[in-house]
Specification:
The structure holds 2 protein chains of 2 kinds. By secondary structure, chain A is an alpha+beta fold. Chain A contains 25 helices and 23 strands. In chain A, strands 1, 2, 3, 4, 5, 6, 7, 8, 9, 10, 11, 12 and 13 form a 13-stranded mixed β-sheet that branches. In chain A, strands 16-17-21-18-20-19 form a 6-stranded mixed barrel. In chain A, strands 15-22-14-23 form a 4-stranded antiparallel β-sheet. In chain A, strand 19 and strand 20 form a beta hairpin. Chain B is built from 8 helices and 10 strands. Classes of the chains: A alpha+beta, B alpha/beta.
């Protein structure tokens, strides 16, 4: 064994260039496979640590109302305990509510509890979920109002000398008692907390069965039959889901009918529905893509594609290795022939060759781990789950990594080893031409596949980035630059005029407006009826603004309408609608037309349309613009203040505005963001897909270049003698370059033609998720193809140069 | 025509320096038939390669038609080579993927002869060497003798001034070997200068002059009866 290894290393070091290329090629393939392995392993184990995770479910709503289909992750606060009597299989329930504003801490030190990680939860939280409570009693710590459980890191930061029992003073002088310390939230959970407050501390905004704003989780009893085949299927609901729906309709049927203006029976007749569905908590991260998710989930299809690509990359790396090794073996043909003549056994020679490839494989593993260590922490993959420790994960996966490395060595080495050993010494010494994998045709095919793969992935990456640039630059129907949004201005109410006046005195501020929502932030929905046809209930998005809204946002009204709408106070309410709403309502002459708002108490308000604003994107560009009604502000509903600057917003502007706000309303906590930033959050998933695609593009083109290099290595080795003859006969450099590169460029051109429809199709499907997207660009395709072509030229140039410039007598001596 | 003054060739490996030929002085006149003899490793092939401008000498001066060519660039060497010299090797050195016709045609391609003229000249050569019926065969389908005839045809087609033959009969039986020698004598009679490396004294005796090499040096130089006949 030791002998094999020493000879293997000596052989490898003899030709350093091949050694380096072999090792690096395999290392890149392996690094890619390891990163994907680690990533998939991370992603597939989300929320599997909860006790009884196979019985733990989240409720979500699936509805079709007013012709609009919607699936939302949030549910009503009444579900958790109101449905329990109807469904005895429910063993435990828990609700999680996320407030939409940060909470300022006054004491022990001035800091803030971020709204994204501040959860209001039921006292059953530690019974239902598997998060470890380090201090405190899991059964009672969240029982009482004004109880807070801090995560270990927050506790250490706030109370270095022990937090349990201490009191936290928050805004408005409220005092919360620390009743527990919980471990820091594991990265592999869709629930993300830093502090947990008892839900009873909060006055919930609306206790109706049809208000959806918090997350409800159920743990079912052991042995619960989730899919009872005896239950008649309605909309594909499982047995338990049917029971939940039944209970819900018993409890909330009236509420629902009032809100919808339709009876359940009428809804069924109109093919409309409002049903409760369940999803396993451990499936949420990979499979759930509902509206109002509480964390960014991953698409299982993306994951499978990534896995497929990485398998392809390592396989191609193996094939390239085999090809390159065969090329190297061709240079050692004489040695092997002589060894065989001298009596070396077939088994010994194949062991020697396998030892070489396995050695290379393990040396490559070392470099692969170095690449992983350097690349992985810098990819978006880890930014999504910062708690993961790559070294620990690799250690945990080491048996798999070891096996894959061994397998790679065997797969890459077995072909050259056995192929060359099949021949008799005489054949070896006389017919070098046969030492190649499957002959010219198959080698050509492999190069084509690799280049198709590279072109497709690079083109797709460029499409992703073109689209991301497009979403940043596309007009969204308003001027999104130079806008500062202050959120949580609840409480400003009557003081808004004073605040506006103070701001408008600053010379760089050209507009201030107040509203209950802003583009990019969740808007509510409202059931309405067209004044001309009151038989149908229609669902439309709503928001409330003041009259300055349109000018501040730079929105335009349809021609002939004023850019400033007055909202007089009357029995009727004047509203503005968007162009899409005109179509949705089927209005020919919208100005002055009447629509009716249906209130939960069955009363209606008459709405008079005073203006039609041009369509603007208030959701992401994934969705088509929806019908929208804009109401005048109700002062107590104001949540956002938008300030338009004449130039880019600077840090001192933020400080100045903060000071003004605290002067006007001392108790309001200041929190601002820029409109561009807020809209950018819609494309986080695409951004991360783009980053993964860039990494893959790099790997793909690198490995394809390796393939090309090994093909050329083989070609030149087999044609060395021919090159010599041609040179002796008078061939110049140009003729030889053409001769050797013609075939390779032919293969790349074929790859270019095959890749075109695949790249187009893939990009088309990816872009399809956007309602507004860039067109597929042939010019861009040509550019990508040209770039790949140049990489190919660069790859073969050195080798060609070396071969062509060698003395012809060397080539002829090669024989 | 060819004049070598103090020509040496040294091959250098990492640690070893091998002198293949050392201070050789030699002149070959137009229309001469010269044979180079000597034991294996004495520098015959290296000398032939230097004369044929396949490799450059390490030192010394090489004049071709009075012009110094020992130090010229690879590109110029290629130009001079293709316009003056043709080669016949012991191992034929035909290109396996090309047919007999294409192999013979190759030097004309590199001389940029128009296709119609190329075709006519190849037809003539095939006729002259009795290879017409084998024109579309690949080298692997021919016997060694036939392959060497193709190599001779390829050497002749470019109408070179000098043919350099490196043991052209070394891999052939005596009948085929004699065929090749006959062809070379005919070419020489037609005015082509021939420089041939051989181990066979019988063949050498049919040339004009024999040069004996030993350990890279010219040890003797003698004229044959064939030369006296002229």
């Amino acid at each position: 064994m030791k002998n094999y290894l020493i000879i293997a290393i000596r052989n490898l070091l003899r030709n350093k260039e091949y050694f380096f290329i072999n090792v690096f090629g395999l290392a890149v393939g392996m690094a890619c496979a390891i990163m994907v392995m680690v990533y998939i392993w991370e992603q597939s184990r989300y929320d599997s640590f909860h006790p009884a995770s196979d019985r733990l479910y989240r409720v979500y709503l699936d509805s079709k109302l007013g012709g609009m289909e919607s699936e939302v992750a949030v549910s009503s606060p009444m579900f958790a305990f109101g449905l329990k009597p109807h469904v005895p299989e429910i063993e435990q329930a828990c609700r999680i509510f996320k407030n939409d504003r940060d909470i300022a801490i006054v004491a022990p030190n001035a800091s803030m509890l971020d709204r994204r990680s501040l959860l209001y939860v039921d006292s059953t939280f530690f019974d239902v979920f598997g998060f470890k409570l380090l201090e405190g009693d899991p059964r009672s710590c969240l029982n009482k109002p004004r109880s807070i459980v801090l995560s270990l890191s927050v506790a250490k930061q706030l109370f270095p000398n022990g937090a349990l029992g201490k009191v936290l003073t928050v805004e408005n002088g409220k005092k919360w008692t620390v009743t527990g310390i919980v471990e820091d939230c594991p990265a592999n959970s869709h629930i993300n907390y830093k502090s947990l407050v008892s839900l009873s501390s909060l006055v919930l905004p609306d206790l109706s069965w049809t208000s959806l704003y918090l997350y409800t989780y159920f743990r079912f009893r052991e042995g619960t039959n989730m899919t009872d085949p005896a239950t008649p299927a309605y909309l594909g609901l499982s047995a338990i889901e049917s029971k939940l729906l039944k209970g819900f309709l018993q409890e909330a049927g009236e509420d629902l009918e009032k809100t919808m203006g339709l009876s359940i029976k009428e809804m069924k007749e109109k093919d409309e529905y409002f049903v409760l569905r369940l999803q396993k908590v451990s499936d949420i991260h990979l499979y759930s893509h509902l509206k109002y998710e509480n964390s960014q989930n991953v698409n299982i299809q993306t994951l499978l594609i990534i896995a497929g690509i990485s398998i392809l990359i390592i396989l191609i790396a193996c094939i390239n290795y085999a090809n390159l090794s065969t090329a190297r073996l061709a240079g050692r043909v004489r040695e092997i022939g002589i060894r065989k003549i001298l009596g070396s056994q077939r088994r010994e020679l194949s062991r020697q060759l396998l030892a070489e490839s396995i050695t290379i494989s393990f040396i490559s593993l070392f470099f692969a781990l170095v690449i992983v260590e350097l690349v992985y922490p810098n990819t978006i993959l880890t930014q999504q789950s910062p708690g993961f420790n790559i070294q620990w994960l690799m250690f945990k996966l080491s048996p798999v990594i070891f096996s894959v490395t061994l397998l790679t060595g065997v797969v890459a080495g077995i072909y050259p080893a056995f192929y060359i050993l099949r021949f008799s010494p005489a054949t070896i010494l006389s017919q070098q031409k046969q030492f190649s994998i499957g002959g010219k045709g198959l080698r050509g095919l492999l190069v084509i596949i690799q280049f198709v793969f590279s072109i497709v992935i690079i083109y797709s990456t460029s499409t992703i980035y073109r689209q991301l640039r497009f979403v940043q630059q596309k007009g969204v129907g308003f001027q999104k630059e130079r806008l500062m949004i202050i959120q949580n201005v609840i409480g400003l109410e009557g003081d808004s005029k004073e605040f506006r006046k103070a701001l408008m005195d600053i010379k760089d501020i050209e507009g201030v407006t107040f509203s209950n929502a802003v583009p990019g932030k969740v808007l509510g929905m409202q059931s309405v009826q067209n004044g001309n046809d009151r038989t149908k209930n229609l669902m439309m998005y709503i928001m409330q603004t003041d009259s300055m809204f349109f000018r501040t946002y730079g929105m335009k009204f349809l021609p002939g309408m004023v850019n400033r709408i007055q909202y007089p106070t009357r029995d009727t309410v004047d509203v503005v609608i968007n162009e899409e709403a005109v179509k949705y309502l089927g209005l020919k002459d919208p100005i002055g037309a009447t629509i009716y708002r249906i209130n939960p108490d069955e009363t209606t308000n008459c709405l008079i349309i005073k203006g039609v604003v041009e369509n603007f994107n208030f959701e992401s560009l994934h969705a088509k613009i929806q019908p929208l009604i804009i109401f005048p502000n109700e002062p107590e509903q104001i949540k956002f203040a938008t300030i338009r600057f004449t130039r880019a917003v600077r840090d001192d502007d933020i400080r100045k505005v903060k000071r003004f706000l605290s002067d006007v309303v001392p108790n309001v906590h200041f929190s601002q963001f820029s409109m561009n930033e807020s809209l950018g959050e819609f494309y986080k998933e695409e951004q991360s897909t783009g980053e993964v695609a860039v990494v893959f593009s790099f790997f793909a083109i690198f490995i394809a270049s390796m393939g090309l290099y090994s093909l050329l290595a083989l070609t030149t080795i087999f044609r060395t003698k021919e090159i010599g003859i041609r040179k002796v006969l008078g061939a110049g450099t140009r003729e030889l370059v053409l001769l050797l590169s013609k075939e390779i460029f032919k293969l790349i051109s074929i790859a270019g033609i095959i890749a075109l429809p695949i790249a187009y199709l893939l990009s088309y499907y990816w872009l399809d998720r956007f309602a507004y997207h860039v067109a597929l660009s042939f010019a861009n395709y040509l550019f990508v193809f040209l770039a790949v072509f140049l990489v190919a030229v660069f790859t073969i140039y050195r080798q060609l140069w070396h071969t062509i410039n060698s003395d012809p007598s060397d080539s002829l001596r090669f024989e | 025509m060819i004049e070598l003054i103090d020509i040496s060739k040294v091959f250098r490996n990492k640690n070893v320096e091998t002198k293949a030929i050392s201070n050789i002085n030699l002149s070959v006149a137009d229309g001469e038939f010269v044979c180079i003899m000597g034991p294996s490793g004495c520098g015959k092939t290296s000398l032939l390669n230097i004369i044929g401008l396949i490799e450059a000498p390490s030192s010394g001066k090489y004049f071709l038609d009075g012009a110094l060519v020992s130090d010229i660039a690879e590109r110029d060497r290629t130009e001079l080579r293709k316009n003056n010299f043709s080669f016949i090797f012991q191992s034929f050195n035909l290109i396996d993927d090309l047919t007999v016709r294409e192999n013979i045609e190759l030097p004309l391609v590199y001389q940029k002869i128009p296709p119609s003229e190329r075709s006519a000249r190849v037809d003539l050569a095939l006729e002259r060497f009795n290879l017409k019926h084998r024109a579309n065969y690949f080298p692997s389908e021919l016997s060694g003798g036939q392959q060497q005839i193709v190599a001779v045809a390829r050497a002749v087609i470019a109408k070179p001034r000098v043919i350099l033959a490196d043991e052209p009969t070394g891999n052939l039986d005596s009948t085929h070997g004699e065929d090749i020698i006959q062809q070379l004598i005919k070419l020489n009679e037609a005015g082509t200068t021939i420089i041939m490396v051989t181990h066979s004294m019988m063949q050498a005796q049919r040339s004009h002059r024999i040069i004996h090499l030993f350990d890279g040096h010219v040890v003797t130089e003698s004229y044959t009866r064939a030369a006296i006949k002229i």
